[in-house]
TrEMBL record:
Gene3D superfamilies: Crotonobetainyl-coa:carnitine coa-transferase, domain 1 (3.40.50.10540), formyl-coa transferase, domain 3 (3.30.1540.10). It comes from the Bacteria. One of its GO terms (molecular function) is transferase activity. This is CaiB/BaiF CoA transferase family protein. It comes from Streptomyces vulcanius. Keywords: Transferase.
Length: 393
């Protein structure tokens, strides 16, 4: 079963694709009851974002990644009857999450101002590309666009070529910001009795994620360089090629660099004033990195990892996916789990009192329509039959 930390909290999830569904999945993992409302017949767009698809189904792995522990209800919000059903569900929910373009749900009376009349305690989260206000508020957008616009691409990649992060990083970070915002709003609601509206923008979240890169620029006025697999901290902090395969090595302070020199039998480097301190190594980056690369090419990756571990120097292998899931630490932490025979990435949060102890598989389209509408909206079997016949559910 999911954690019991958010037991008794109901989330009405009108979102699709990735950022907002990740947020509601996280809330579901933490014990919230999440009711996912999808379009009859087609559902969340991401159900078709394959291949790959789950074996024997037409449900994409993309959808499976962010919709476990939810119940799926199909309701056509473009119909008057569908709008009434969603209002009924919202009236009995603690949180509503949606990611329609700014202003869209107001056309159907499903915006925050409309729903708060019936449920003033409702926490209403709207996730959009550019936010509810500003000159871009009505623009559509996807993760790669926000990586480009936020500056994330400007600090990623090699000097000659900016690159996006391989995964949909702005979506993922926005999902985490979204879940955090909901939890804070629930805390405020429980203290005051008042719900509130949360306006979350993917562009804003992409920029916020630049963190110290953005702060370095704001303080110095210097545009950050792209350094490929190199970092901005102490030297070394990057990938190096060994005699067979690469590893990632970080010696972020003088103690760790000294330990690396001992591991490499190159304590002479500590006598060179260009390399003796962290600030000196940063200033002489272009001189020391070729020296370190030549050293690391003298042994295999696994030989280096063993000797560096003995000397307490932070380092790790470059892993392809098969190696990731075979890693003994990953296996020990049980980061690979399953639900209904479906392999899943586990939630990484480890609670002592309210652990996440299991998962329900992502729902089939409309799998729970009847039970949810009976339970939360008081719909009878005859009414359900009529609603189905008219394409409302």
């Amino acid at each position: 079963m999911p954690s019991t930390a958010l037991s008794g909290t109901r989330v009405l999830d009108l979102s699709r694709i990735l950022a907002a569904p990740l947020a509601t999945q996280l809330l579901a993992d933490l014990g919230a009851e999440v009711v996912k409302v999808e379009r009859p017949g087609t559902g969340d767009d991401s159900r078709t974002y394959g291949p790959p698809f789950a074996p024997g189904t037409d449900t994409a792995a993309f959808y499976l990644s962010c919709n476990r522990n939810k119940r799926s209800v199909t309701v056509n919000h473009a119909t008057a009857e569908g709008q009434e059903l969603i209002r009924a569900l919202a009236a009995r929910s603690d949180v509503l999450v949606e990611n329609f373009r700014a202003g869209t749900l107001a056309k159907y009376g499903l915006d925050h101002e409309s729903l708060r009349e019936a449920n003033p305690r409702l926490v209403y989260l709207s996730v959009t590309g550019f936010g509810q206000t500003g000159p871009y508020a009505q623009r559509p957008g996807y993760d790669g666009i926000f990586q480009a616009m936020s500056g994330m691409m400007s600090v990623s990649g090699h000097p000659e070529e900016p690159m996006k992060v391989g995964v949909s990083m702005v979506d993922i970070l926005t999902g985490l910001y979204a879940a955090t915002a909901v939890l804070a709003a629930l805390r405020h609601r429980d203290a005051t009795g008042e719900g509130q509206f949360i306006d979350l923008s993917l562009l804003d979240c992409g920029l916020a994620s630049l963190s110290h890169f953005a702060m370095n620029y704001l303080v110095s006025g210097e545009v950050p360089e792209r350094r490929g697999n190199g970092g901005y901290g102490g030297i070394p902090s990057q990938a190096f090629m060994c005699s067979d395969r690469p590893l990632f090595l970080v010696a972020g302070n003088d103690k760790q660099f000294s330990a690396f020199c001992a591991a490499a039998d190159r304590t002479d480097l500590l006598q060179d004033p260009r390399f003796a301190t962290t600030s000196a190594r940063i200033s002489h980056r272009t001189e020391i990195l070729p020296v370190l690369q030549d050293i690391l090419r003298t042994r295999t990756r696994d030989e280096w990892l063993a000797v560096l571990d003995r000397h307490d120097v932070p380092a790790g292998p470059y892993n392809e996916m098969p190696e990731v899931f075979a890693d003994p630490q990953i296996r020990h932490r049980e980061m690979l789990t399953e639900a209904g025979g479906l392999p899943l990435l586990a939630n990484p949060i480890r609670f002592s009192a309210t652990p996440v102890e299991g998962y329900a598989p992502p729902p089939a389209l409309g799998e729970h329509t009847a039970e949810v509408l009976r339970e939360l909206a008081g719909v009878t079997e005859d009414q359900l039959s009529r609603l189905r016949a008219r394409g409302v559910v």
